[in-house]
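Help! Submission page says 'invalid entity' but I think these are all valid:
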Amino acid sequence: MPFNNPYSSNCPTRKVLDRVGDKWAVLVLGLLGSGDTPIRFNQLRRAIEGISQKMLSQTLKSLERDGLVSRNAIATVPVTVEYAITALGKTLVTTLDALRVWAETHMEEVMASQQRYDANATSGQ
Amino acid sequence: MPFNNPYSSNCPTRKVLDRVGDKWAVLVLGLLGSGDTPIRFNQLRRAIEGISQKMLSQTLKSLERDGLVSRNAIATVPVTVEYAITALGKTLVTTLDALRVWAETHMEEVMASQQRYDANATSGQ
DNA sequence: CAGAATCCAGCTCGATACTG
DNA sequence: CAGTATCGAGCTGGATTCTG
């Protein structure tokens, strides 16, 4: 039984899927994972179009909590905070890549199916 | 640039991640993918603990629309409807399995990180 | 610069009731 | 059996304001 556990808050797979289902978390992870240099808060903010400051800080906090991202505060004035992906985070990004490949490979097939479905639904009424 | 596209509704990877972030969709897919025999609506309902009939029908509809699941209505009285995973759906389940393996492999490490994080946050106050 | 706190609009989802 | 329709509570996340 592959994906089980009912309400599943304590199912590890579900936790990862929740993380991965979170748009901002994936974008942050992808950005930090694409280079090896740390990125500052407002740099991330500018790089990820559409993210609010609240969501960015919230996302970074939970990614740090999970050990996927590391935070480094430098005592300049004003303070500088750098975020970087961890070794653990990199392994997740790698795994996520398999999903990206699936998406790109099968997108056309999915879209074709959707169009068939929608065409039938419309004509059926 | 791995995971891009800002609001990304038309990013294929994001669509897949949304699907995968949907708890019920993954459970339905996992259940249908674990065997080769089709499953009826109320069978699924009973098998997936906690799912409401609204969410099940909604989930099945969108999975069918994407071509991940097939629907077969049999004209008995009352009507019987069977759902099965498609070939496309199977490839997604397989890919999802990589994520499950990641979760199971790294769960301990993630949980350890969370405990360190929470301990610091508490003592810090 | 890097956040925390507050407020609220909007969407999700469960519960409930009804249908072919 | 296999759904659809409707209503409302609750959570999510954006906008705004403020701080060390």
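Support: the input was valid. A stray whitespace character was the problem, and the output above is from the cleaned input. Chain B touches chain A through 55 residues (CB under 8 Å).
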